[in-house]
Amino acid sequence: MIVLDTETVITLMLLTLRVFSFVVMVPAFGTFFIPGFVRVYLSLGMAFLLLFFADVDPVRTTSLPEIISLGVHEVLFGFTAGFLLRLLFDAVFVAGEIVAVHTGLGFLTMFLPQQPQATVMAGFSTLIASTLFLTLGGAEAVFLGLAKSLERVPPGSFDLYSLDGEVFLRFFYESFSMGVKVALPVLIAALVTNVILAVVNRFIPQINVFMVGLPLQIAVGLIVFMISLPVVGLILTGYMRDHMLEFLRFVSSAR
């Protein structure tokens, strides 16, 4: 039975900082489509669940400087774990940016002033990745990972310098590589379309290629993108499962 005393309240506050800094980093929970107060309530609810169902020892301190130091460590851990999982969505985000640039859809950002500096295809790809992530049990994996992390990293005991930098480099490389692979069909189609337009402009100079090229690039790019979605979905499913397993291993072995 948990007694609501000062130590429990401090522990709950530290858990909330850990969860909130993690939630803000992950696009599936911290995207600009979700209001800020929803993220706060979600973080507080998950902190309550971790406090009740995970094996958490109350933090025994009442010193304000020490509490602030413990809070900084919790924010660093949540930020680090969230950044590692964010690389999963950044792969799809990079693919959406590449598709938008090579299909001529990058200029649509001027019609969406309320949206952050991202193309429409990048936002659409992020929403697809978030849906696929939640469908594969990503929310359950996140809660399990945070609960497991409390066994190795109790509140306030995270050491940033104990992390292995090669893990982050490998995840970053795999994320960027996966983004290029997902956008590869559209890249090839855009290259072929540009070559065809260049040949047409060379042999039939009367045709205004600039007027024909943009709508043709958009049409070809979107058609190829829709045709390749089933295959891309299978590739992303396997990649997400492997990435989530690596994420669980990382948060379970962190110190």
Summarize the structure.
The chain is built from eight helices and no strands.
Would you kindly provide a written description of the structure presented here, covering whatever features stand out?
There is one protein chain. The chain has 255 residues and is mainly α. The protein has one domain. Helices cover 77% and strands 0% of the residues. Helix 4 runs parallel beside helix 7. It starts with 5 loop residues before the first helix and ends with a helix.
Key structural traits:
mainly alpha; 255 residues
Topology readout:
Elements: H1 6-25, H2 27-30, H3 36-53, H4 64-103, H5 120-135, H6 138-152, H7 165-203, H8 209-253
Beta-strand portion reads under 5%
Task: Give me the secondary-structure category.
Answer: mainly alpha
Radius of gyration: 23 Å
Instruction: Let me know the average pLDDT.
Output: 79
Overall 3D form: elongated
Q: Describe the largest sheet.
A: none
Task: Give the N-to-C terminal Cα separation.
Answer: 28 Å
Record field, number of beta strands: 0
Number of helices: 8
Oligomerization category of the chains in this entry: single chain
Q: Give, in order, the helices and strands.
A: HHHHHHHH
Sequence stretches where pLDDT stays below 50 over 5 or more residues:
none
Classify the helix fraction into a percent range.
Answer: over 70%
Number of self-contained structural domains: 1
